[in-house]
Description:
Layout: H1 15-20, E1 57-59, H2 68-84, E2 87-91, H3 97-111, H4 115-119, E3 130-132, E4 147-154, H5 171-196, H6 203-207, E5 215-223, E6 235-238, E7 244-248, E8 256-260, E9 263-266, E10 274-278, H7 280-285, E11 295-297, E12 305-313, E13 319-320, E14 338-339, H8 340-350, H9 356-363
Parallel strand pairs: 1-2
Antiparallel strand pairs: 2-10, 3-4, 4-5, 5-12, 6-11, 7-10, 7-12, 8-9, 8-11, 13-14
Helix pairs in contact: 2-5, 3-5
Amino acid sequence: MMTCNQTWPEPIVRVQALAESGLSSIPSSYIKPCSQRPTQTTFTPQNDHYDHINIPVIDLEHLSSGDQVLRENVLKQVSEACREWGFFQVVNHGIDHELMKSAKEVWREFFDLPLEMKEELANSPSTYEGYGSRLGVKKGAILDWSDYFFLHYMPPSLRNQAKWPALPSSLRKVIAEYGEEVVKLGGRMLELMSINLGLKEDYLMNSFGGENELGACLRVNFYPKCPQPDLTLGLSPHSDPGGMTILLPDDFVSGLQVRKGNDWITVRPVPNAFIINIGDQIQVLSNAIYKSIEHRVIVNPIKDRVSLAMFYNPKSDLLIQPAKELVTKERPAMYPPMTYDEYRLFIRMKGPCGKAQVESLANKCD
Length: 366
């Protein structure tokens, strides 16, 4: 069983409250070292020279069609995106656009509630479930310019709607419906990845514990406007520690940046698309054929942002290790067996740390 500090090392400050106080400069605890700040070399949609750069966009419409050629083309696009980017967007994914819109709207309404109402749901490092403003329990850490709400969705035994906000009144119903649909989408994506890796189509799902035992949790991110966006980040560089992330981004304000080589590329969300990325656990299971990718979030001086990240994870006590079918003499196992519970403790103690965790595991197999 995972153990972690029961309390935060310092008093929690809500970033939204800071932003709404009208301050013109941010506290020193949010100022990143010079090397970690957003720079002018970042490629954004406003930089005309790099306007054509974006993560792949994949239309899933033909997956269920009877046309094998069209289906194979979708599989090929997913394979290339997983190998070359670790990030891609999907459209025609089968999830109702109105449900997606409602999910963002109810959470924006939650973050607009009076602070004292949100504080009743304040979280702790022991589970992270609830209303939060920091990741990691390292005292004196440089903090990110964001608040969030974290909740467990799968397995059903961990789903406790009593811990979900009661206001707005439609939130629990909307998120129950939204979670069900996104978890189904995650299952379809695991199937495609398994096939593309040359494994049985249910391999990754079974490695995660099966449909009823896999882990899924939702983190709703709120990135308030920031008077000095060039000095801080909404979320520090990291790769996701779990299996796969399905992100519902803000349609109107870009913020997610993906590392491509030495560059940071700002993702331009496609309307009604989900952004999917590979996590560390699929990197391990695929023996690094698929790699998790470092990403971060920049903040905006004028507008705030809301995004919903569904983390699709292995059952916490299952050993995760490279698939034996992907281990050869030429490509030996690159990672030792480890449970997801053991793995994520690193993140919960130290917060986002680039790809330090998964790379440290690979070193143990040298």
